[in-house]
Every structure is written in C-alpha cells, then in structure tokens.
Amino acid sequence: MMNNFSGKWTWGLIFFALILLIPQAILAQQWIQTDPSDIPTPQNLTAVWTTSSITAGSWPDNITTEIFCVGEFGTIIYQDGSTWTPQTSGTIYNLNGVWGTSGSDVFAAGDNETIIHYNGTSWTQQNTAGANLNAIWGSSADNVFAVGDTGTILHYDGDTWTPQTSGTSYSLNAVWGSSATDVFVVGDFFTLLHYDGSTWAQFETTTTQDISLNGIWGYAANSVFAVGEEGTIIWYNGDIWVLLSSELSPSIVLNEVWGASACNIYAVGQVSGYGTIFHFDGSAWSSQSDLISPSSPAPLLGISGTSMRDIFTVGNGGTFVSLVLVDDERYPLVYATSPIGDATGVAIDSNIMAMFSTEMDPDTITSATFTITDGSTPVSGTISYESGAFAVFTPDTDLDYATTYTARLGTDIEDRFAYGISYDTDYTWTFTTTEEPSSSSGDGGCFISAALGRK
C-alpha cells in the first residue's frame, strides 16, 4: 500500500507557505473567451493540449504555438498560431483527452477505448473497442498511458497498447507523472493510484468519500495537485496527500488542473452550471471567475499551456478561453524570494531561493547570474534549478553571523523561450543573518559555544 492521505496541515506545507508569504510581484491577468463564431465547432470541447517552439527572429514572431482541442463525436480543432482548422479524426466517438510530444506526435483518447495518433499530417486509429477512456498522458513518445472507466489503464511502448492491472474497478479520470517511473492516476470515489515503473498501487485514505477526483498535475514528484467535486483540491508532498480545500461549495466541480510554475497553478470547472477558474499563487487558492470576459462562460472541462503566456481552457459548446497578461508581465517575474527582502535573523545555514512566475531555462541560472555577496566579497556556493521555477543558491559553508548579504539575479536569466526576466537592471534583495549566540562558561570552566550544522 502507498502513503496515507491526510486532512491535516503538514509542516512541509507550512514551510512552503512561509517561503511564499510575501510575493514580490502580483500578475495582472484576464481571461478572454474567443468569440464562438470564430471557433469551428459547436460541440463540447473536453480537453486541450498545446506546444510552443522558438525559431529565428525576434519576439513575438519567433514563438509558434500550436493548439489541439478534442471533444464530442470525434471533434478535433487545431490552431497553428493564428487560424483555427477542423481536423478529420476518423472516429465518431467522443474524444476525452489529448497529449503529445510535439505538433507532429499527438495522441487522443476517447469512448469505446478509442486511441488515435497524429503524425503532423493526419490522424490514424491505434486502438478501439472496450471501456471509455477519459485521459491520456506520457513521459515520452514510447511511454504513454491512457486511463478510463472500470479501472482501465492502457500503456503504449512505442509500438503496442497493452492493458495494465490497476487494482480497481472505479472509473479513472486523469493521469500525470513526473517521469516514466512516477505516474499518478485519480478517479471516482477518491481513487488515488501510483505507478513506480512496474506496478500500480493504491494510496491509502483515512476516509471513504463519494467524491470524484477529475484532474491531476504537478511540477515535481513531491508536489502534485489533484482536483474534483465539491471544490476538492488535494496536494501530494512526496509523503502524504494533504487536503487543501473541500466543500468550498457543493455546487463547485473542478475538472482539470495545470500550472506554469509553483506560483501559477490553475484549476477549471463549473459553479452552478457556469465556467469557473481558480488560481494558486503559491500560498492560497482564489477564484478568478470575475476575470473572465464575457462573464459566465459554459462549464470548463480542460486546461493546458506551455508557459505563463500561453494558457488555454476549453468547455461546453465549443468554449475556448485564453489567459491574457499585460505586456510587462508577459516576461518572467521574480515572484518571491527566501529569505524575503530586508529579512533579519536569518539562519546562517540557510539556502537562498528565488521563485519565478514561469518555468525557466536552467542553463541561464549560473554562478554568473545568481550571486550572493557580503559587501564586495562573493559567497561561494552551488547554484541549482528545481522544477516549479525555483533557483537555489546553496552556500559552501555557513554564512557569517550578524552580516548583511546581497542576493542578485542577473538580467541574462531567461525562460525556455528566451524571454528575459522583466527588469531593466539586475534584481537584488538583501537579508541579515542572526546574531551570534551568547557563550558562557560551564562547570569546571569549560567554554561552551553553540554551533549549527547545515541542513
């Protein structure tokens, strides 16, 4: 059996929230629904997948974004970055999920165990006849999972689709993984499954709940979010599942979740029959329904994106909604830091971290672009990048007591589409370490001093 589900706040989550307690920037955003007359289908759109690539030239002409939407009765519509085009799917069955590795390698799954594949020119059938499939995801072109009703899980090895034993007969509604050996599935009756590369196992839960989990996404193996009925949002911290919200309202149904970074995660669904969007800023979830224009769209069923600039959600009646940011915020922002700016009493064994508003290019976060100094004296350390858009500076030795340090992020830092951070000059902040603990003489005149080890 897998690790437990917990309805209690964990120390890991408290630490995470404290890091992000005071954001350094708040995104100004609005969701704009595309005029239905511009969408070449009236059918319900159930899922969306998008991919972006960078080419020669200058922004924004050097970014090409392709969008694939699937829906009822075999509906597929495609946008090449400017024009919507219906595509022939070759099936009349409802399509419920879509995922790919590139614009010329896309899979869609649907009812009657239908799986079709797009090679950049046309869609061809790979599988049919069986249980309805509700979602599809892969870690690569030869490691793809499709999940569906009656506990169905199919695996594709690049050549053949093969059934796998799930250990449940409940409907499975969504699949996501951080790697080929770390895959999560959620479903009806609070079903939570995990795949380690060889077998599927079910997470234990402390209660049996008649609540369907409909969507799942994460930015790392130890940070996975799942959403479902009654406004349910749960989070996996690598050890246990934590209940973040439940019963916000019995009328709330959350259908899918996706994020650009740890501070930009979105869940879409419906409230009393109207589309709704919730946003996680790194510490709390809040509704963005008042940011959707026109207001009160149809229920939203799927969401996907490639960065904070390209996020799309789809729903009933051919509904298609895009996230729109103001110009400056189309560039990566330093959203939060740890320690926060002007912090005092910072532990001398602390790591220094910065979180960005979207995933970054790790190759641009180096000892030249992320520095810590004591006056003009540089601090030696190791720089790393972690999924979720975290840059981490780990000092080689403990920092000095009662010392003010300056952290700097250079303007050469870019996201994976070569957008530099949104600052004209280097982004800097300062923090001051704690005072040295007082020392005293013990019995026999021995000198006692406090020493803190690195975490």
Overview of the structural elements:
The protein folds into two domains: 2-330, 7 Propeller (Methylamine Dehydrogenase, Chain H); 334-433, Immunoglobulin-like. Residues 5-25 and 441-455 have low confidence and may be disordered. The chain is globular and about 75 Å long. With 455 residues, it is mainly β. The two termini are 30 Å apart. The protein contains one helix and 41 strands. The strands form nine sheets. It has a nine-stranded mixed beta sheet with strand order 15-16-17-18-1-22-21-20-19, with no helix packed on it.
Short description:
Helix content is about 0%, strand content about 50%.
* Radius of gyration of CA atoms, rounded to a whole number: 24 Å
Percent helix = under 10%
Shape: globular
Strand order of the largest sheet: 15-16-17-18-1-22-21-20-19
Parts with pLDDT < 50 across at least 5 consecutive residues: 5-25, 441-455
Tally of individual helices: 1
CATH superfamily of the largest domain: YVTN repeat-like/Quinoprotein amine dehydrogenase
According to CATH, the fold-level topology of the largest domain is Methylamine Dehydrogenase, Chain H
Say how many strands there are: 41
